[in-house]
Amino acid sequence: MRLLFVCQACGCHYLAPVGLDYPDGGRASAVWCSACQRDAAERGATEPAELAAVAVLLAVRVLKAALAARPTPPAAGAEQPPRPDRRPTRPAVSSRGRTHPAGARSRLA
Question: Is residue 30 part of a domain?
């Protein structure tokens, strides 16, 4: 799971890349979304290091809380209750004895 940040300039929520590094080699901001980061770079403003550290710590705390609230997966081989949004599967067809000779289906009349 990735960290979810809140932009301190416009208030939008955004997903920063893993490790806060863009594929082109640029550094993502933990404080500003990409649009606000671009505007701040044009103004010559630098990202406050203290605010960035707090933003990362809060994002990690929220991620840990979300992971702790997830239900634990059942053990391997454990019987799971049927899901209400799924139709029941067709019961297995038991092998029945044939009522006619095996070659009757392949022969043309």
Answer: yes
| Residue 19 domain-assigned (yes or no) | yes
- Residue 85 domain flag: no
**AA letter at 85:** D
Task: Give the pair of three-digit tokens for residue 48.
Answer: 């406050």
Structural domain count of the chain: 1
Tell me whether residue 98 is in a domain. no
The Cα 58–Cα 60 span in angstroms is 5
Distances (CA, A) of 35 to 7, 11, 41, 53: 10, 12, 10, 20
Q: How high is the mean pLDDT in each 10-residue block of the chain (109 residues)?
A: 86 87 86 92 91 89 88 71 74 63 60
Return the structure tokens found at 95.
């092998």
CA distances 58 to 7, 30, 36, 48, 78, Å, are 13, 10, 20, 16, 36
Task: For residue 90, give both structure tokens.
Answer: 């067709």
Joined together, the tokens standing for residue 11 give 């208030």
